[in-house]
Amino acid sequence: MNQVPSVEREPAAVELRRVKIVFAALYFFFMLARAVFGPFITLYLEEKGLSPEQIGLITGINSFIIIISQPVWGIVADRIRSTKKTLILCMICQAVFALSLLFANEIFLIAIAFMIYTSFSSSEGPLMDTWALTSLKNAGDPNGMGRVKMWGCIGFSVSSVVSGVFISRYSTGAIIPIFSGLLLAIALVLLFVKTGSAPAKAVTLKEMQIGRVFRDKKFLIFLCYVFFMQLAHRGSFTFYPLLIKQLGGDTSLVGYASALMFVSEAVIMFLSKRMLKKTKPEILVMISSFAFVLWHFFFSICQTPGQVVLACLMDGPSFALFTIGTLYYMDSIAPPDIRTTYQTVAYSIYFGLSGIVGNMASGWLIENLGYQPMYWIGMTVTLTSTIVFFFVRRVAGAKAAGAALEK
Fold first, then answer.
1. Is 215 helix (H, G, I), strand (E, B) or coil?
2. Rounded to an integer, what distance in angstroms lies between the CA atom of residue 81 and that of residue 142?
């Protein structure tokens, strides 16, 4: 039996280790920076004097921006054949425009400032994910994404606790300059990061054949499913800091809740490599839907801020599993030359389009009916969408099997 000489295996093992360390560090500091401000956006808007319905309106408008900006940045990355350069540009612009939030005091100016901010910030997640997954696959570890993203969860957990304590002593606005400074520092470091892939020649939009994305039936069916699943989740996630505050908690508890969320996500990310070896990505997404149902149920029965914080532990089995499953499913069906476009279009649907409807509807429900009805409706929508997708998937599979037999 022929064996690969250890001399040949060693450089590959060293390269894989280097890629893992590089992206683990990038995710740690990238998510550490995002946790400085991200979990406290709704509280910042409330500090500005906005009502839940107005907050829902602004977050809904931002979701509309996500629908446009994420595919645009994905197309840019695929066209210039550099996800890294696109990510650096987005981070620099986000850092600069985050500072404009400090000077916006009227609802119209706040909405405009958040629209510009979101147009750059919303694409960073899918860009980073696509870059990291491609690099890991090239280095020989196609299922190792979860264990790399796990370090992002750890960074987010540490930062959200510290930020929550800082904000409770000062204000949400006081932390924005720190947030911008961290983003600029990370963008500077990214300039010197190399992952071993050779630079590719840019292509034209005609050569990319973007229309392939919207003719892919598998892709479109899956997008419909995750749209309804995240429709229910986006609103409940957006307003959980206000629920903590309404039940008597302070800002530091929001930081602890965010930390618990990402600790639970880190556990799922660590286990995901083993899960992906045994289970198809779309099945992982369906399993996550039942965890989302439990998320809504636990939040609906919370009577104290401490109970809300504990309920946030459901974020790992729900959102982390959903994220990994969706990332790998998109990667499995996307043509290699437009993978970033597939990922960003998917993100734009389940963070953008679902966010528009989910945040606006949730803001209205909270204003008129309260928090509990919102969570019960979320449970119903999530469960129904999963049942429908299950049967659609079975029918599509039966048709594909029948067509294969006829051939």
1. coil
2. 20
